[in-house]
Design brief:
Blueprint lengths: L6 E8 L2 E8 L3 H21 L5 H44 L2 H9 L1
Antiparallel strand pairs: 1-2
Helix pairs in contact: 1-2
Length: 109
């Protein structure tokens, strides 16, 4: 959070508990959506496992969210690597198709 940007205090509810958060003014709606999503995920776990303590609910939900994040990052990294390989191949093919002197003339124009 940047010190130059105005902040405000908001309150969110997660599993029936209220939490006070300080957020940048422009981030309030985003933070509320995240808190609401977290609350829904924790309630979902809690409904499936009512015998579990609130701390267990929080930890298991955090682990599930962390796993989803890691999988998304892996997919992103895999996609980025594949795109980089494809761009390198296209650059090589283009380099082979356009003689260096001709390519240099085109960049000067």
């Amino acid at each position: 959070m940047s010190e130059s940007e105005p902040t405000k205090s908001i309150r969110v509810q997660i599993l029936g508990r209220e939490y006070a958060l300080r957020v940048q003014e422009g981030d309030e709606a985003h933070t509320r959506r995240i808190a609401s999503s977290l609350d829904a995920r924790m309630r979902q776990f809690n409904e499936a496992h009512p015998e579990q303590a609130e701390l267990t609910t929080a930890v298991m939900t955090a682990l599930t969210l962390a796993e989803e994040l890691f999988l998304q990052r892996e997919q992103y990294d895999d996609g980025t690597a594949a795109l980089t390989r494809e761009l390198d191949e296209l650059a090589q093919r283009l380099g082979a198709a356009v003689p260096p002197a001709e390519a240099e003339e085109r960049t000067k124009a």
